[in-house]
Amino acid sequence: MFINKEVFKASFLQRLEQTASVSFGNSTSRDQYHTLGLMVREYISTNWIASNEESRQGNHKKVYYLSIEFLLGRLLMSTLINLRIRDVVDEGLKDLGVELSDLEEAEADAGLGNGGLGRLAACFLDSMASLELPGHGYGIRYKHGLFEQKIIDGYQVELPEQWLRNGNVWEVRKADLAIEVPFWGDVKWVEQNGKLQFVHDHAETVLAVPFDIPVLGFNTDHVNTLRLWGAEPSKHYPLHKDFMQYKKETEQISEFLYPNDMSNDGKILRLKQQYFLVTASLKSIIRDFKKNHGDLYHFHEYVAIHINDTHPALAIPELMRILIDEEGMRWEEAWPIVTNTISYTNHTILSEALEKWSIDLFKPLFPRIYMIIEEINKRFCKELWDEYPGDWDRIEQMAIIAHGYVKMAHLSIVGSHSVNGVAKLHTEILKRREMSNFNEFYPYRFNNKTNGITHRRWLIQSNKGLADTISSAIGIGWITETEQMKKLLPFAADAAFQEEINQIKLNRKQELAALIHQRNNIVIDETSIFDVQIKRLHAYKRQLMNVLHIMHLYNRMKEDSSYRPHPRTFIFGAKAAPGYDFAKRVIKLIHSVAKIVNNDPLTKEYIKVVFLENYSVSLAEKIIPATNVSEQISTASKEASGTGNMKFMMNGAVTLGTLDGANVEIAELVGPENIFIFGLKANQVMQYERHGGYHSHDYYHNDRRIKQVVDQLTSGFFEDAYYDFEPIADSLLMENDQYFLLKDFASYQDSHERVAEAYADRKRWLEMSIHNIAQSGFFSSDRTVSEYAKDIWKIRPNR
Ligand SMILES: *Cc1c(COP(=O)(O)O)cnc(C)c1O
What we know:
Layout: H1 5-20, H2 29-57, E1 62-66, E2 70-73, H3 76-82, H4 86-95, H5 100-106, E3 110-112, H6 116-130, E4 135-140, E5 148-152, E6 155-159, E7 172-173, E8 179-183, E9 186-192, E10 195-201, E11 204-216, E12 223-233, H7 243-252, H8 267-292, H9 299-302, E13 303-308, H10 315-326, H11 331-341, E14 342-345, E15 356-358, H12 359-365, H13 367-387, H14 392-398, E16 401-402, E17 405-407, H15 408-414, E18 418-421, H16 424-434, H17 436-441, E19 446-448, H18 455-461, H19 464-474, H20 477-480, H21 495-520, E20 529-534, H22 543-559, E21 568-573, H23 581-599, E22 607-611, H24 617-623, E23 629-632, H25 644-650, E24 654-657, H26 663-670, E25 676-677, H27 682-691, H28 696-702, H29 704-714, H30 726-732, H31 741-760, H32 762-775, H33 781-793
Parallel strand pairs: 1-4, 1-13, 4-12, 13-14, 14-18, 18-19, 20-21, 20-23, 21-22, 23-24, 24-25
Antiparallel strand pairs: 2-3, 5-6, 7-11, 8-11, 9-10, 11-12, 15-17, 16-17
Helix pairs in contact: 1-2, 1-4, 2-5, 6-33, 10-11, 10-13, 12-13, 19-21, 21-32, 22-23, 22-29, 28-29, 29-30
The chain binds pyridoxal-5'-phosphate.
Pyridoxal-5'-phosphate binds near residues 536, 616, 644 and 647.
């Protein structure tokens, strides 16, 4: 049906009438999108079935990637590109007077994640399939993804997201493969064949129903699967309980994604979600395994299970439970199988974000799992005692269960064979500081895998013009081998190539300007510097520092009539966790500053501030190609890696950032002349945190610029928000500015000047931009996933 555009048009028209029951003339974009989606999924089916067969029969080792989040975004375009039928479809639809981009917009954005961690999982799926690696994702089919953000009078309001409202053409519900998941109840032991057996009694069971989504790679027949579990009432529901109550509690498990980016909340439900994901996934993995292999003694030779952060860490005790209680293994037999199967990625060193669960909550919910964790902890502490006799402090610090809590990171380290950080700096901090005790005890377990992004979505799909220009300069080899993008380096100073790059950026800026006009009713100057900070709103990411600097620019223009900078458009996009008061106030502040700056006749030609609401994957795809300056300004040591930084670099934006996360590696690759680095280094921040010595008051009193902007927060300068910003001012002064904004302010301001100066020199700027594109190949998630496959999972392509 996609052989050529005539065949495509004929089948499209026929299918449209069949599926939507409307004539073409009366059909909406949504009808058309739905029809096209169904056609594409049908087209994939043959390969999907073949891949599944091959995987069942073959004896290849496979990896299963467990993640509580998958921030997929839209799937239509990436699927068309991977199948290499985008052009046929595009031309066929054009003949019919339909724009493919309109159908693209009709697809809901699957936002089953909060931010970087969930987007990483989605990029990895794309890379695993493209590298023809047998790797499948397991997650939860949240009925409502991350909340939809509305801005009302400058304040964030959260609405439930509804991506499934019009169905999901990409998924297939597999009711026959559903799995029972038990909660609560109690543990009994019974004697069976002279052995003690544990049984979980009086449990409340819910049904986990798989919804499978095909995961295609670029230009390959290989198709992996993303299996998302939905919670439904079980036939074996607890008779003592009111059915409606039980149904409600059950469905809640896959109702909402937790919108809490860093810390944990909504405790019991969140914990239920974790066990639900883990149990259903393990049982399904083992069921498949048993079709080919008898017992589980060689499980780890054929199966790798990766846990994306600690949310799926219950896979460790659950696999122990299955091997011991169901397969009849001894502890000593089961434990090496578990640790050799499981590997773990750490995503944060913010101590408030390290997961821990109160035993009071945990134990009643999973009585048998809790027993197993106790045993793991007992044996681990014994090993510690043998190694460090008498060192109670160390044992207390490293224990899995301590002070009434289960520590999920400790469980994850002890129960896996590999622990990786997500950027060089982050891994070093884990090894040398935060987890140095564990690194000493398990010296070979820690390793680094610097994050990556799929260049197929973040360049080929979202910036076709740039991708085509790269191909015409250096050929198409870079598409499958992104390191070849370095071949662009000789073009960096080439005037003709610079002009092409300039034109592409300008086109994308015009498109974004049109979107901003349409959405925010703000007119922006397309030749201004597009300076962008889009990411979750968090104190450590320091959106506040960005806003304070904009306030300073404004003040300076008001005071000094000779100061008229190159026009700049500051663009923000960010969701704040619903309960995160500080973050929400910063959103309000951005709006209040925008209101003043954008409307003051003296400044509005020079500075515009734009907040684009409801930041999401599909919005990122529109903003990033239009960006000149990528703001990556986290307090050094706090951002594990960042992946936004990589997307911008690949699209020719120049980074203005601290030496944090993967910024360090970006700086190494492009060299100091092609990046703007400022501020404290990670070791300086950690030094202050340990030994003190930073007093934000000094910076407030000694730097007039700082005093002025901080005072404006509470002086009535913002007429629409008289008292809103007092807590922000307090965080900077009373609470001694935990994230070192005032400390870094001067060097941040100075870098902005350097940016403006560099931008004014068109040739120099374009040369910087091309350098960034050329060096971005390293950050393809194909590189990252290849490293995981080789070093951690020990899997090879299915060929
Ligand atoms: C890439 C991405 C992120 C992560 O951005 P960081 O700047 O690394 O925090 C978050 N949300 C969305 C929608 C993304 O595409």
